[in-house]
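Possible regression after last week's pipeline update?

I re-ran a chain I had predicted before the update to compare outputs. Posting the input and the new output here so someone can diff against the archived version. Not blocking, just want to make sure nothing changed silently.
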Amino acid sequence: MTIATDTLVIAAHPDDAEFGVAGTVAQWTQAGRRVVYVVCTSGDKGTSDRSLASEQLVKIREAEQREAARLLGVEHVVFLGYLDQSLEDTPDFRKEIVRQIRTYRPEIVATSDPYRRYIWHRDHRIVGQVVLDAVYPYARDHLAYPDLLEDGLEPHKVREIWFWRTDEINHRTDVTDTFERKLVALKCHASQVREFRNPDLEKWLRSRCKEMAADGPFQLAEGFHRVVIPG
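New output (post-update):
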C-alpha cells in the first residue's frame, strides 16, 4: 500500500529530527502538510547510565520520539530497528529506504547532511548518503529493486532533498513563531537532554537558531542545504 504524503523526514536516531528540522516541521503541519518520520535506529546506545540496558533504552527513546512527533503534528513514526552505531551503506539498507520513499511518496525528503566535516556521528553520515542515493536514482527507477513492484511499490520521483546540520546552508526557514514548539518537542527527549548536560537548553537552542538566521529578515531560523532533484 502506498500513502501519498508531503514530507518524509529520515533520521538516524530519535531526537535527530527535533534538533535539525522540528521548527520547519511545525510550520508544515500547521499549514496542513502531511509529515512522516522514519527513524533508522532506536538509539539503543545513547546513554551514559550503566544501569540502563539497551532494551530499556529502546522503549524509552521510542516513546520520547512518538511524543515529540505528536506535539509537532507528525502523522506517523516508522522505526526501522537497526542498531545504533551500526548503520552501513549496504544494498539492503538502501532498499529499505527506497521502500519507505515509494510507500509514502513525498515531495520533500529531509535528512542529515552526509558531507558535514569533522565531528559528526557516523550514523548521520551513513543515513544521509544512503537517503541521497535512495532518492536519486533508486526510488525513481523501476528496474532498481524490481521485487518492490510486486509489493505494489511503484517508482517515485522526490522533488527536493533538504539536509540539516550542514556546513553549506543555502536555504533558511523562519522558525521564529514555531521555536517554542521545537523546544518543547526537543525536551520530550528527556533521556538525551540529560546527556547533553547543558544548563540552559533554551538559551543554547535559541542561540543556534539565531546564528542560522544570519542577516536574514527573521529572528530565528533552521538552515539547510536544499537540493532540487533533476529529472
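Follow-up from reviewer: compared with the archived run. The chain has one domain: 7-228. Marking as no regression found.
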